[in-house]
Amino acid sequence: MVDDNDSARRVMLSILESFGIEAMSAADSRAGLAEIEHADELGQPFGCVILDWSMPGMSGMEVAKRIKLDMPLQQRPKVIFLSGHKHTERINVSGAARLLDAVINNRSRRPDCSTRS
Predict the structure, then answer these.
(1) pLDDT tens, 61-83?
(2) Helical spans, DSSP H, in the chain
(3) What's the pTM?
(4) d(CA 13, CA 58)
(5) Residue 1 within any structural domain of the chain
(6) Quick check: 84 and 106 in contact, CB under 8 A?
(7) Boundaries of domain holding 31
């Protein structure tokens, strides 16, 4: 889980752990990328990375691009985009959908889950 919002990270980690999922978090994009690369180098790659849309310094979309296209990883994790805003249309129009495996939007407390294959 890579999100600059401390509360969002805590809540998401709690949810994931309640399902028995081993999870960790990073407070910013660069720290998240470093953790992904380090885990891959150790032969313990992440299976999935959950990214926030809007983070200072480097957007979640830029992180997704680096994970999917730029980083020299042995195994690329699935990328799930988490947003409190409706960005699905912008993602589709920009062509960024090819970088994402799933998008979770939260509008007015009704989650909308879109998956990509």
Answers:
(1) 899 999 999 999 999 999 988 76
(2) 6-18, 29-41, 60-65, 88-94
(3) 0.79
(4) 22
(5) no
(6) yes
(7) 6-115
